[in-house]
Amino acid sequence: MRKYENLVIVKPTLTAEEIQASVKAIEEVITSNGGEIATTDTMGMRKLAYPIEKNERGYFHVIYYSVAPAAITEIERRFRLNEELLRFVTIKYDTNREIKAWDGLVEKANKKAAMSAKAAETPAATEVPAATETPVVEEAAAPVVEEVPVAEATPAAE
User: Fold this and answer.
1) Which residues contact 79 (CB under 8 A, 6 or more apart)?
2) What domains can be seen in the chain, in order of their start residue?
3) What pTM value is reported for the model?
4) For the chain, what percent of residues have pLDDT higher than 90?
5) Greater confidence, 135 or 98?
C-alpha cells in the first residue's frame, strides 16, 4: 500500500454540520476502497486565490492515508461526482525521501490535533480556579519625563 495525501476544498455555502457530513463522506470513500486513514488536518475556511464556481472562500481539509494504487482511480472518480467539492488534489508519496516527509506531515497534523483537543479541554478546567483567585493589581508607574537641555540665548550683537 502506498501513502497518499488529499487536499479537498468544500463549498463554503454549506452549514457546519453539512461540511462535517461531507468530510465524513470523503473519509468513507477512502475507507470503503481499502484505505487506512493515518490522520486528518482541518485547515478551516480560507480565501481562495481566485473564484471557483463564483465562490471566494472554501473549507480546506487534508487527509493522509495509505491505500492500494488501484483504488485511487475509484476514489478520484467519486470525488469528481461529489458536487459539494470545489477542488481536490491527490499527492502520491513514492520514494523513501517522500515517505519520510509524509511521516513528518502526519506527526505534525497529529500534534496539531492534540493541541487543539487540549486547548478545548483546558479553558473549562482553568475557568473555575481563575474565579477563586484574587486579581493582582499592579501599581501605575509615574510617567518618565526626560529633560532636554535648552540652549542659552545669546544677546544679539549690534
Assistant:
1) 6, 8, 26, 29, 85, 88
2) 2-123 (3.30.70.60)
3) 0.71
4) 57
5) 98
